[in-house]
Amino acid sequence: MKHSRRFVEALKIVSLLALQPGVSAWVNPQIPQCQSPQSTTSINNENVPDWLQLGRQWVAAVSLAGVLMLSPNHDNNAVHSFWTPAPCYAAEEVAQSDEQQEPGTVLNEVWTLIDKYFIDRTFGGQDWSKIYDKYSPKVAKVMDDDAKTMKYVTEMVSLLGDKYSRILDVNQYAAIQKFDLIGVGVTLMPNQNKQIIVGSPPIPKSASDLAGLKVGDRVVAINGVPTEGRTAFDIIDQIGENPNAETITMSVLRDGKQEDKTMARQFLEVKDPIRFKISETRSDGTKVGFVRILEFNALVKTKLEDALAKLEAEGANAYVIDLRMNTGGAFQSAVEIASLFMQDKVATYVVDSSGAEIPFQTTKTRLAIDAQDPVAVWVDGTSASASEVFAGALHDNCRAAIMGDKSFGKGLIQAVYGLKNGAGLVLTVARYVTPGGNEIQGIGITPDIKGGVPLPIPGISADTSKVDFKEVAKRLSPEMCTVPDFKGPAAAAAAAAAAQAS
């Protein structure tokens, strides 16, 4: 798979797809067999876009270069879906050292990131070079006033005409820590020499910030394991092997001096996103396990796995997964939990501005439930982003029938990039497509079965009595459901066009 040069330079991420209603982040680059006991996201990648490689820590996702989306209701404080934990990193060229802290740095950072990664290569009909020439002298006149500088930078971003691309202030940028899978608020990426470095400014007051980590610091080892020859994703997988560890130690090399930095991992503000129970036992022996997923944060995979294990132990043999009112979360988390239901399947495709199609696959880890147990997924008009990735993955692989109302239709991927002044840039860098090649953006996931879904009520209360699991099983049978051949979105579109023409 070939990618344009602008996408092959530096591992950048943000743990997602769209996080809360509107932003998505992820952190999963394409690296040869990124797998571990705790990592269920697999991609075979060699030349992976750097926006997608930048860090597998968050998620949001956008995880993947960081990805993050704002909620559909445009709540400025809503940051739901990205790829990975730590906020993304600014482009390598503009994040190498603190020597670039002179006035105009933020303008340069933001302009460069947009120039390299924005999905619309027409830049909203703007001549992007002239845009820089327009704002550079304006920023030079207010070089000592950060507020005025950011006002101009924000104005520049708005010219893209993309409702999801925007500037995050310092507080909003810090708020995405709940999608941090590493827990210390830092993003790692490879430099031009393939050495792992700190790729963007640590989140203010995070463990990495308090430990004194700086952009450009070389991380030569993590928990005693050398980083030489390893990708950022390999490292995230290593950390994931011990998800309950309270600390992490990074051996940092700066100015020829190496020092170990032991940092406390912090996940205190991350809420348990799972609610579950046996909702009913029917006369025919069907015992329904009901699971509500509130959001796709850093805990969702572990908590869902625990919930399904308990429901299985109680005898559940049919499942309802409720994604209503779930506006998104970390992209990689959506792919990871899909692995609890199906093995070695394409969960989604990510398509970047160059047209490159990157498949994300579930792994061959042990299934959390019996492969024959029927699964119904409930969605509504607020189910967005990472929710749609998860629902689309199970649906197109004939693993779950969709019930309820059409989902929101948030199929764009945003990366979250940390800026040197502590703020952040949310930028649309790609879109995701279901395994069957169906676009999500502006379309959503269409239910197989309408009706049978009660009004959404906060908490665990849910009436599953109207779910016809015989109908669900029928919808998933080979007679009614065909697993796609996974040749990619472009091939699927061509096949559909040919079929329509004939």
UniProtKB/TrEMBL annotation:
Signal peptide (residue range): 1-25
Protein origin, superkingdom: Eukaryota
InterPro entries associated with the record: ClpP/crotonase-like_dom_sf, PDZ, PDZ_6, PDZ_sf, Peptidase_S41A, Tail-specific_protease, Tricorn_C1
Coiled-coil ranges per UniProt: none
Domain PDZ as annotated: residue spans: 173-254
MF terms in GO: endopeptidase activity; serine-type peptidase activity
Similarity-based family: Belongs to the peptidase S41A family.
Protein's recorded name: CtpA-like serine protease
Organism this protein belongs to: Seminavis robusta
